[in-house]
Write a structure and sequence with these properties.
This protein has 149 residues and is mostly beta strands. Helix content is 5%, strand content 36%. It has one domain: Immunoglobulin-like, CATH 2.60.40.2020. It is globular.
């Protein structure tokens, strides 16, 4: 549930973990009058701070798809992330004779967004992240709950 004027941000990687293969993200939605078409913004990932100067891979820049709530209503959206156009390059690298038959596209969603009128005083500047289990004020995966031995 969102209010008019709020934004929904979906972050997707631009390349695989080695940086060899480029991903393409496409957003699909049923009502572009309730939510805006996505605004794409490339976010440079922060480099990890390390004490030793060991060479490492550069962090992958993320693509942020930002959807703005325009008016009241409901909208269903999903984002496809694919590397279909990279299959030839992948086959050459791994000496394959044919492209992969599956797992060339991943889907985020379907997400149903309900947009409502703004009510009363607004909480400005709070950014909520979905960590796979719940909404959180901190970016990153959910902390594992386990028993200490």
């Amino acid at each position: 549930i969102m209010c008019v004027g709020e934004t929904l941000v979906i972050e997707v990687p631009q390349t695989d973990e080695g940086g060899d293969f480029r991903y393409v993200a496409n957003a699909y939605m049923d009502k572009s009058d309730v939510l805006s078409k996505p605004v794409n913004e490339i976010i440079e990932a922060k480099k990890a701070k390390k004490k030793s100067k060991a060479p490492g891979a550069e962090p992958d820049p993320l693509l942020q798809l930002t959807f703005v709530a325009l008016k009241e209503g409901k909208c269903v959206l999903f984002v496809d992330v694919s590397w279909e156009d990279q299959e030839e390059k992948l086959c050459l690298k791994h000496s394959l004779t044919t492209p992969c038959a599956e797992n060339t596209i991943a889907r985020i969603g379907a997400i149903e967004v309900e947009v409502q009128k703004p009510t009363g005083k607004q909480d400005k500047g709070s950014f909520q992240w979905w960590n796979g289990e719940k909404w959180s004020n901190k970016k990153g995966p959910a902390k594992k709950k386990g028993k200490k031995k």
